[in-house]
DNA sequence: TATTTCACTTTCCTTTAGGAAAGTACTATA
DNA sequence: TATAGTACTTTCCTAAAGGAAAGTGAAATA
């Protein structure tokens, strides 16, 4: 019983970890975050900055990222209207995690390919 | 050109980040890692410790985790042979990342559900 | 001899992520 | 009037993840 409880309380950390991973998971989330944070604002600019992405996927991922408050869709009411995508300051809270994942991923690749 | 180079060098971090995420991604990787590190060793014990997992998925994920050197498949040559799954010390290098993801995931959930 | 346990594998099916190509509604420009 | 740009949407398709259920082969137990 004590063992089972211990296991279940460990499982409690699975959900938030999954929540976090889901935000940056998928083929295009990180490239889009990077593109927007490096200054690309227009839909077509973002699209052209990421080779291979289709407008369908970009539209869907931008909505996702907006729901997660990482970017903001800004409508500029000129004639014609402009639509800009801008990074939210909140997006920077992801940076240390992405760095940690990057570092681990780099050493892991070495670990896997080192002589057995 | 400087801008494009900047973008491309940012993209260089996408691959290692993906490498890292792939290791812990999917529905069952974390529960299995947790189950093994908390002491479950036998296939059926691990299976029973994770509600809902099927033997097919467990077998596949255990192979994956072994390839990534996070766990070890140990064959004990008694009669009958026993097969044990044990965590590798290397698996602990994941802990700070999982903790960071958990913390970010928890605050993120609050952020998303706070009044707009 | 029959049943059970262990560690899986096999087959079939559904769901989800993502790609390719075309279309759309509006505006601007030649 | 015709073409081009902007920001998408729609439809159709494929591949991969994962689930359900049954099967397998060897050894242990009743």
Description:
Two copies of one chain form a homodimer. Chain A is mostly helical and 116 residues long. Chain A has a single domain (26-113), classed as Arc Repressor Mutant, subunit A, CATH 1.10.10. In chain A, 59% of the residues lie in helices and 10% in strands. Chain A has six helices and two strands. In chain A, strands 1-2 form a two-stranded antiparallel ribbon. In chain A, strand 1 and strand 2 form a beta hairpin. Chain A is globular and about 60 Å long. The first copy, chain A, binds a DNA duplex (30 and 30 nucleotides) through residues 26-28, 42-44, 47, 52, 54-60, 79-83.
User: CATH homologous superfamily of chain A?
Assistant: Winged helix-like DNA-binding domain superfamily/Winged helix DNA-binding domain
Tally of individual domains of chain A: 1
Q: H/E order of the elements of chain A?
A: HHHHHEEH
Taken from the alpha-carbon principal axes, the silhouette of chain A is globular
The pLDDT mean of chain A sits at 90
Please tell me the CATH architecture of chain A by its name.
Orthogonal Bundle
Q: Strand pairing plus helix content of chain A: what structural class?
A: mainly alpha
Give the C-alpha Rg of chain A. Answer: 19 Å
**Between the first and last Cα atoms of chain A, what is the distance in angstroms?**
40 Å
What is the beta-strand fraction of chain A?
A: 5-15%
Which CATH class of chain A applies here?
Mainly Alpha
**Largest inter-chain interface?**
A-B, 45 and 45 residues
For this entry, what is the oligomeric state of its chains?
Answer: homodimer
Largest sheet of chain A: 2 strands, antiparallel
By CATH, the topology of chain A is: Arc Repressor Mutant, subunit A
Number of strands of chain A: 2
Poorly predicted runs of chain A are 1-8
**Strands ordered across the widest β-sheet of chain A:** 1-2
Tally of contiguous helical segments of chain A: 6
Helix content percent band of chain A:
55-70%
Pfam family, one (chains A, B): HxlR
Keywords (chains A, B): DNA-binding, Transcription, Transcription regulation
Protein name (chains A, B): Helix-turn-helix transcriptional regulator
InterPro entries (chains A, B): HTH_HxlR (IPR002577), WH-like_DNA-bd_sf (IPR036388), WH_DNA-bd_sf (IPR036390)
């Amino acid at each position: 019983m004590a063992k089972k409880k211990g296991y279940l309380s460990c499982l409690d950390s699975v959900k938030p970890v999954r929540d976090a991973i889901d935000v940056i998971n998928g083929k295009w989330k990180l490239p889009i975050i990077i593109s927007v944070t490096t200054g690309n604002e227009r839909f077509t600019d973002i699209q052209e900055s990421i080779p291979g992405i289709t407008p369908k996927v970009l539209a869907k991922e931008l909505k996702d990222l907006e729901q997660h408050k990482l970017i903001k869709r800004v409508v500029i009411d000129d004639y014609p209207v402009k639509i800009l995508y801008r990074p939210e300051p909140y997006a920077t809270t992801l940076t240390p995690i992405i760095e940690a994942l990057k570092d681990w991923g780099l050493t892991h690749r070495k670990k896997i390919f080192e002589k057995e």
